[in-house]
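ok trying this again, last paste got cut off
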Amino acid sequence: MKDAADAAEEITNSRPLELVARAGFAVSGILHLLIGLVAIRLAMGGQGEADVSGAVEQLAGQPAGPLLLWTSFAACVALAIWQASDAIFDFEHLPAKKKLGKKAKAVLQAVVYAGLAITLYSFANGAGKDHTTSTSDLTASVMKAPGGYLLLLAIGAAVAITGIVYAIRGFRQSFAKHLRLPASPRARSAVTILGVVGYAAKGIALLLVGLLVIIATIKVHPEESTGLDGGLKALRDQPFGIYMLAAVGVGLICYGIFMMVRAKLAKM
């Protein structure tokens, strides 16, 4: 059993898997960049779906769409495996409390990239669908289940708190400890600025999604739980909303560029 575990650890920490996993960060970056561009378009009165589903649909519409989707799928699967490997094999030298926190974070990251992989796979197979509708349907289903009301409130609160954590992480620049920053002061400053602005914007977006879930649950209107796209469009309808939405769009573009840079600089 130990030999099997050692072999699995060796495979999941291999250089080829690391290279493909790094590409997963770049895929996430491209999707965030596309979402940011749609957010700016919405702020200017245009149309579009400002969420992962909409971004993947844009990838699918490119001349090399199928190739982009399948390679992006492979990269996200590799990164999900890498994060799962971290959760299983790494952090054993840390104190129990810190180890648990690190492993939990790795599990969550694995789930996030597995979710991206599933979305990419569904579009690559021609089965992609509107994410706004599916979010509302899922909220309605959970709401009808025993304890679903409390579960949705907990999910909404967790997403909102995650958004706050992202923003704090950006302003504290704590993301830098996960990178091998370049030696050039100018390059270091550029990466840091991208991280600060990007993490703040990502935090605002997650906070909006969490608040929408909470509000939809309290009002018992699951159709109002419309994910990231709904959150950004709700922001647009507020006083000075078009300016705030444009700012969030720029921030998401910064986050996307940061994630593409992270593909090269991340400590794996």
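PB: full thing came through this time. The longest helix spans residues 185-218.
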